[in-house]
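Journal club prep — side note

Before the paper discussion, L.F. wants everyone to see what a predicted structure for a comparable chain looks like in C-alpha cell form. Sequence:
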Amino acid sequence: MALTGVSGGGKTLGALYIAYGITHDWDKIALIDTEHERGRAYAGRTDLPTETGAYLYTALYAPYSPERYKECVRQGAEAVGPDGVVIVDSLTHAWNNEGGVLEIKEQIAGRPGKNSYTAWNEAGKEQNSLINYILSVNCHTIVTMRSKMEYALQLNERGKQEPVKLGLAPVQRDDTEYEFDIVMNIGRDHVATTSKDVTFLDGFGAVITPELGAQLHAWLAEGKEPERYYCADCSARIEDSSKGPAVKRVAATTEHFGRALCESCTKLALRAEKAAQEAAGNGAG
C-alpha cells in the first residue's frame, strides 16, 4: 500500500492507523523513518483521534541508498513477522535525496563511456530492485511518498499557452505507484481518496482511522467486504466522507427519519422537515 500527499496531510499517522487496524498490536508495527525522527512523535499519544501505543522504530539517515532501505525493511519484516506491518516513511528519499537513485544515475553517467541516457539502465535496476524487495518481504508493507503539484502548458481562450494544474503527483519514479495494490492520496484536509485499488476501496473518501485497516484485514483473511449502504430516497450508494463513515450516517438518518439517506437527500429531508414545522406553527397561530 502507498500513501501519497503533501506535507502535513497525515501520511505517517494514517499509515500507523491502518497498520494498527490490520494487526491490533502495536508491537507488530515497524516504522522506518527518513523524516528526521518525526515518526517518534506519534508513539504513546492519548491526545489523538485514536490513541497510539509504542511501535518498533528505526531512523534512517543519509545516504538513502536502495541497499540501506532494503536492509531496514528486512530487519523490520523479521521483527514484526508475517502478520505484521512495515511502514517506510518515506520512499521519496530513496529517489531524490542523498544516495538515492537520481544521485546513483549521475554517478554512473560520470564514468568513462557513460552518459545520462545510458546511465538510466543501471540506475533503473537499482530502483526496480528496491521496489521489488519491499513488495516481496513476508509481511504487509505501507510506504509513504511526498507529493508535488504537476503543471502542463495548455492553450487558453486567447490562443496563448498558460500553465494548468494537473493535480498532485508522488515524488518518485513516474510508474512507482502502480506497483502497489492500493494507492491513496491524502489532501491537506486529511481526507484520503483512492487512486488505485484491488480491494473494495473504490469510492473511499474519508479521514483514515484504524477501522480501515480492520476492514482490509477482514478482506484479506476472509474475503469479507464491508457492507454497502444505499439511500432509501435516491438509491445512490452512501459513501464514507470527511464527515464520517457511511455506517454512522446510516445510523443517524435511520434514527431521525426512519430510513437511510445520503448526504444530499439528508439535506432535502431536513428542509422538508423544517418547512413542515413552520407550516404547522403558522397554522397554530
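L.F.'s comment for the group: Residues 263-284 form the longest helix (22 residues). Keep this in mind when we get to the figures.
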